[in-house]
Amino acid sequence: MMTLQEMGIPKGPMLAGAGIFRNCPGFGGQYLVRDIVSGFFIILKINTG
Predict the structure, then answer these.
(1) Interacting residues of 4 by C-beta distance below 8 A, sequence separation 6+
(2) What domain of life does the native source organism fall in (predicted)?
(3) How open is the CA angle 25-16-33, to the nearest 5 degrees?
């Protein structure tokens, strides 16, 4: 990071972009877990009548 700053590249936008990139798997995982739990309850409901 210090090398980029010495070259005149601002670090603020890079840190913001890294933060957004870091949160993407979290949002995707949230939907994945929700879908798996929903599917489990659908199968349970079908099997129990």
Answers:
(1) 11, 14
(2) Bacteria
(3) 15
**What SS3 class is residue 49?**
coil
Residue 1 pLDDT grade (very low, low, confident, very high; cuts 50, 70, 90): low
Separation CA 26–CA 1 (nearest Å): 25
Question: Per residue in 9-33, pLDDT tens?
Answer: 787 877 777 777 777 777 778 888 9
Q: Read off the tokens for 40.
A: 């489990």
Amino acid at 27: F
- pLDDT band at 36; cut points 50, 70, 90: very high
Cα 4 from Cα 38, distance rounded (Å): 46
